[in-house]
Amino acid sequence: GRATLERLVLDLRFAARGLRRDFGFSATIVGTLALAIGAGTAIFSVVAVSLKNERGDEPEEVVIARTTVDLFSTLGVEPPLGRLYDEREATSGEQLLVISHELWQRRFQGDREAIGRMVHLDLRGFEIIGVLPQGLGYPYEADAWRALTPEEMEDDDREAQVVARLADGASLITANAEVETVAARLAEARPETHTNLGASIQPFRTTVVRDVRVALFALLGAVGIVLLIACVNTASLLLTRAARRGREVAIRTALGAGRKRVLSLHLTESLLLAVTGGILGIGLGRWILASMLAVSPDIPRLESVSLDGRVILVMAAVSAVAGVLFGVGPALHAASTPPDRLIRDGSRNTTLGGQKMRVQSGLVATEVALSTVLVFLGLLLTSTFRSALTFDRGFASDELVSVTIDPMHPPDGPDERRAYFADIVDRVERLGGVRAAALSSHDVLEPRGFRVPVAVEGRPVPVPTPEAYVNIASGDFFATAGITLLEGDGFSESGGVVGDAELVVNERFAAAHLTDPATRIGARLSLDWLEGHVVGVVRDVEILPGESAPPKVYVSMKRVTVPAMALAVRMTGDPSALIPEIEREVRAVSPDVLLEDVKIVQAEIRSSVAPQRFNMLLVSSFAGLALLLAAVGIYGVTALSVATRRSEIGIRRALGASDDRVAREIFRRVLALSGAGLAAGLVASAFGGRLVGSLLVGVSPNEPKLIAAVIGVLALTAFVACVVPVARALRIDPRETLG
Q1: C-alpha angle 239/245/251, rounded to 5°?
Q2: Which helix (H) or strand (E) holds 319?
Q3: What's the rounded Cα separation, in Å, for the pair 553 and 455?
Q4: N or C: which end of the chain has fewer CB within 10 A?
């Protein structure tokens, strides 16, 4: 009733006054909780879930998804603008299109009059009838959706995906078993097409989150460790404070305050600290979340991430529970201390006692162990990022631009195509700052090409028939891209003759199919639709460490042409400044050309390692926070040890102990405490390294240098944390302690 409320108000006032008097202690705990809860708020928000096109009406490549009409109802999606296509329209084959919110903004500037507009896809006209909600890009980050025609429904398209909603009460395991049964029946009924093909179900969330799932949960685990460290640190600090306030509690008890009253006061103080830290943490979480989104890579549904009510409720609950947990230990300690002993010992009694001191030391060792795990993961992901960024990819990526040229009305004959692309290359090479330009069927960052069966003349064809990837290129492609020629020569002016094309193979192809170095040059190959002889061997092009280059054969475009080609341009200076001029020269030859994948290659490489950079930044930040909290814990237990042993240290110094000996004694205790936590942390780190194995690129979690670095970082942290307490110990005057 009213009495309870009045008592609560009095307890809050008393707790606030006490915390205000001990401002340094209060600020440390509130800051610790705010940092941990802020980080947790941001990560939980992520895991829980431009307008005008500068090119105007120029052609743009978009991803089109073909769907059945019930896809959107299954997903529970309704268009905020326009409508969806129905079964009748799909059956009759009407050319209707539903577009994404992002495409609507990008191409139509959010104009509601876009409904009813006609657009052309592969020279076919489609009417826009609806716009889907923001953030929906399923499947394959689609830009638009159209209905599957009856003819397409009959195709055996193995890239099709099935989306289903489980019936009420149905489990994923049961549904998966039923799907496997259907797949087995299809394999039995259609052995020529379905043998060795299976089917399985996975949650839709898993499909959407894709390969960032491991990274997100690794970050969630890192935040969990930081929260745990914060809890341990706060409990340790409150235990120390309880020891310092022993005489005060004893006097209150002697004056009639019951055990329940003492518990209430301590819990109120702890809750006040937790709530304050929680409020500041949620505010800090907004800033951390904004910073994360600013540097984040392509995380699915990232645009829908926000600090919503669910996250705030969760973190509020965490703060409240933390407050209770923090207060229980110190409160029980205070309430169980015999008041007569504390009063008799007087103000000199600031010790926790042997058992309680061991408890606090154990808490600090736990902090060190948890910090070790985060430091290990942070250094591991930092090594991964450096490896991915500096990896030798087999070509010179600096000052290189790639543009895929796809004319909507390509020339018909091969000679006309060669003349068309030669004109483009000639125009681009005349631009100031351009050093060289060349063509290939696949840009340099595409490690594959046209897949074809391959046979070496004079050798039996293995079963199954080996395959290689074919890339059609101009004669100066290797020099322009910076791909080193290892053996033989490049293409001649003619590229060979009909029926005997000149071929250049990569290292992987040579190692797999041309094992005798003496006969590589001149070896004849049959590539399904092409025959020729090898004139040279070039370096493998590998985009990421651990992803070996496939066997590849380069064919001169003098022998083979395709409608679309990738233009590689090497220039001097800033590549971005010349891109508009390159596009202008290409459009001067063909105004309706589709320019796709305009890339500054070095920037594209940096973008490709953005996930590693994102993981490194976040985990390293959490590791730094964990080290800070561990340092606070080590400092606290060392300072308390020095304070409780003040008389002992004074006597030892009076008996002749040198400063070095006193310092070594304190450092030895800190080393033992930190060493125990470090050893436990290294064992846990071995398991952590395995869990994040899929995030690693070109680095092993068992590298001795990495482990040595972790030990060095933790040792330095422990040393810095106890410098001040050691300095205080060396300033103890033996006369004061003996007096």
Answers
A1: 135
A2: helix 309-336
A3: 12
A4: N
Beta strands in 430-564 (DSSP E): 434-440, 450-453, 455-456, 467-473, 485-488, 496-497, 500-506, 524-526, 531-538, 552-556
Strand 531-538 to 500-506 pairing? parallel
Which residues 6+ apart lie within 8 Å of 727 measured at CB? none
The answer to whether 172 and 166 have CB atoms below 8 angstroms apart is: yes
For tokens 């307008």, the residue is: 51
Counted residue by residue, the chain has a size of: 739
Which are the contacts of 549, defined by CB distance < 8 A and separation ≥ 6?
A: 394, 447, 506, 507, 508, 540, 541, 542
Placement of tokens 């099935």 in the chain: 162
Phi, psi dihedral angles at 201 (to 5 degrees): -115, 140
Q: Report residues of the chain scoring pLDDT below 50.
A: 49-50, 52-56, 346-351
Beta bridge partners of 450: 470
CA distance linking residue 225 with residue 681, whole number of Å: 12
Q: Which residues pair with 429 in a beta bridge?
A: none
Structure tokens that stand for 490 in this block: 């490049």
In one-letter notation, the amino acid at residue 183 is A
List, in order, residues 6 or more apart from 534 with CB less than 8 Å away: 488, 503, 504, 505, 514, 520, 521, 522, 523, 524, 525
Would you say 554 and 473 are in contact if contact means Cβ atoms under 8 Å apart?
yes
pLDDT in tens, 400-455: 999 989 888 888 888 999 999 999 999 999 998 899 999 999 988 887 788 888 88
- Type of residue found at 595: L
96 beta partners: 127
pTM equals 0.65
Q: Which distant-in-sequence residues (6+ apart) come within 8 Å of 109 by Cβ?
A: 51, 52
Task: Using alpha carbons only, give the angle 212, 216, 222 rounded to the nearest 5 degrees.
Answer: 145
Distance between CA atoms of residues 452 and 555, nearest Å: 13
Alpha-carbon distance of 606 to 587, in angstroms, equals 29
Which residues pair with residue 440 across a beta bridge?
473, 566
